[in-house]
């Protein structure tokens, strides 16, 4: 497989920065219209369409250079550096507005946008992208678009780029499909919970508190000297920073675990913001930012969705306190709930527990696919795996 040397500038049709802050103020945002991207939309190779801000068509038209369309690549140049994502052909919207902390560019016929984005997700690509970063004050790429265009890389022919992208996109699309299935399953499970326990309250339900149905363990952080990221000891979660859609990401371990959560326990953030929820994928140590909530009667799915629906009540703790919101053990134990009879709980578990298990299995497959992708990516990009003889 042959590679040819290019500067980034030789691979672009256009490049432009996001709008000045004065051109897209808070009062510009509306409830629907043209979506505005932020850093949370750039957490993978392709952007996600979890949009919270919009501007009118007229406003978007006035910000012409900040308009990004399918096939464009978006880069964060200030704040969370290293974020780079392309807008896929399957994106929900035809165009987007980039934020003031981003720049966008469009590739010419020499390179596929997917290929170039994947390149910047390799270790070499990340190093190149961050090579002119300044860490003084807010992290930023100095002279962002100018220095970016001066970067150099070796790329194969477009035909071979297509083959590499095809392999990697098959993996990404399967991960995306599993994520969508999981989101749909969780929405269905929440709807079932609402139907059974919120909208149609059984007259036989009794008033109680969270402590009547669950054992609550408040986290306690181990000695900092026991932390490591080498897999030595027990998985450790300090707070919500590791939280994902359903399960937290493993980053740290501790050799001196103190407070434990166990497989399938509900994990809840007890410090700002209070009430964010995940599930323990394995036995783990929890720090002072978390609580573990364990069903007393083996109705763990009921406990999980109860916590989801207590979110509004828990939000009050985010507005209390002088600096950060928090909740203590007593307040959590005393959260008022309605407790159905065991027969109704058993019925709910029979329906929803298999859905939760499917979410877990899909998550496990996502984890395996991500590992496969991470192993393949540098080998495909470097030519160590030769795709020239592969036919699709």
Overview of the structural elements:
By secondary structure, the chain is α+β, with helices and mostly antiparallel strands. The protein folds into three domains: 4-154, DNA methylase specificity domains (Adenine-n6-DNA-methyltransferase TaqI, Chain A, domain 2, Alpha-Beta Complex); 156-195 and 347-385, Helix Hairpins; 206-339, Alpha-Beta Complex (Adenine-n6-DNA-methyltransferase TaqI, Chain A, domain 2), CATH 3.90.220. The protein contains ten helices and 23 strands. The protein has helices at residues 57-62, 113-119, 123-129, 144-149, 158-198, 210-213, 300-309, 311-314, 329-333, 342-382; strands at residues 4-7, 12-17, 34-35, 54-55, 67-69, 73-76, 84-86, 95-97, 102-107, 133-134, 140-141, 152-155, 206-209, 214-218, 227-228, 234-237, 252-254, 260-261, 266-269, 277-279, 284-286, 290-295, 336-339. The chain has a five-stranded mixed sheet, with no helix packed on it. Strands 2-9-6-7 form a four-stranded antiparallel sheet. Helix 5 (158-198) packs antiparallel against helix 10 (342-382). The longest helix has 41 residues, at 158-198. It is globular, with a radius of gyration of 24 Å. It starts with a strand and ends in a 10-residue tail after the last helix. The model has no long low-confidence stretch (mean pLDDT 94).
Helix percentage? 25-40%
CATH architecture of the largest domain: Alpha-Beta Complex
> pLDDT below 50 for ≥5 consecutive residues: which ranges?
none
Q: Overall pLDDT, averaged?
A: 94
The fraction of residues assigned to DSSP E strands is 15-25%
């Amino acid at each position: 497989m042959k590679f040819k040397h290019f500067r980034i500038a030789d691979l672009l049709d256009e490049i432009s920065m996001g709008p000045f802050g004065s051109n897209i103020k808070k009062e510009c945002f509306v409830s629907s219209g043209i979506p505005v991207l932020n850093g949370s939309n750039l957490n993978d190779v392709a952007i996600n369409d979890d949009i919270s801000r919009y501007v009118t068509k007229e406003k978007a038209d006035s910000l012409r250079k900040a308009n990004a369309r399918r096939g464009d690549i978006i880069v964060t140049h200030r704040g969370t550096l290293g974020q780079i994502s392309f807008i896929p052909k399957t994106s929900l919207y035809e165009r987007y507005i980039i934020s003031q902390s981003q720049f966008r560019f469009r590739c010419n016929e020499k390179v596929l946008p997917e290929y170039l984005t994947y390149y910047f997700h390799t270790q070499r690509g990340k190093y190149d992208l961050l090579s002119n970063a300044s860490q003084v004050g807010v992290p930023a790429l100095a002279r962002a678009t100018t220095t970016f265009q001066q970067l150099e890389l070796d790329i194969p022919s477009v035909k071979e780029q297509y083959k590499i992208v095809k392999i990697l996109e098959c993996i990404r699309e399967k991960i995306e499909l599993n994520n969508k299935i999981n989101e749909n399953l969780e929405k269905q499970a929440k709807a079932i919970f609402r139907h059974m326990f919120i909208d149609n309250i059984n007259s036989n339900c009794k008033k109680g508190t969270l402590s009547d149905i669950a054992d609550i363990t408040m986290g306690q952080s181990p000695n900092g000297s026991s932390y490591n990221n080498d897999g030595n000891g027990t998985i450790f979660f300090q707070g919500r920073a590791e939280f994902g859609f359903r399960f937290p990401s493993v980053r740290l371990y501790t050799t001196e675990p103190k407070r434990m959560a166990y497989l399938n326990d509900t994990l809840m953030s007890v410090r700002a913001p209070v009430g964010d929820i995940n599930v323990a994928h394995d036995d783990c140590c929890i720090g002072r930012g978390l609580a573990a909530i364990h069903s007393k009667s083996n109705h763990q799915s009921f406990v999980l969705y109860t916590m989801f629906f207590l979110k509004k009540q828990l939000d009050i703790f985010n507005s209390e306190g002088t600096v950060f919101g928090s909740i203590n053990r007593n307040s959590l134990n005393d959260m008022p709930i309605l407790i159905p009879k065991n027969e109704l709980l058993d019925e709910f578990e029979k329906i929803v527990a298999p859905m939760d298990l499917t979410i877990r299995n899909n998550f496990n497959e996502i984890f395996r696919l991500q590992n496969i992708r991470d192993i393949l990516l540098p080998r495909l990009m470097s030519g160590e795996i030769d795709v020239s003889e592969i036919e699709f």
